[in-house]
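Write out this protein's structure.
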Amino acid sequence: MEFDWTSGKLAEGLACYERAEFFETHEHWEIVWLALAEPEKSFLQALIQVAAGFHHLRAGNSAGAVSLLRRALRRFEGCPEGFCGIAIASLREEVREALRDLEAEAPLDLKDFPRICPTKRISPD
């Protein structure tokens, strides 16, 4: 499946994520996730787990956030850079940093949640 982050449910979920509307992000992306096959299904599930993790953190459930972020990282491990149109390396590192802070019980500013950055495609002229 071609992932289009500029329109439809993927774009709507990404816009929600960028506004830190984590529950709403999950709602948009779950619709797409239900129709996917592997390995894209596991990848989108990892993105959903990141959003859900920060939703749990906002609700005061840091243990739930840690669990979800760990599971998301496991799903990201085999993904090459640019998989499904997302910059994986930077996302993976930001999730790791958030997880380290949470596990160390360091204060985590919810404004500094990991960024999900679609890769830009350059089309030949």
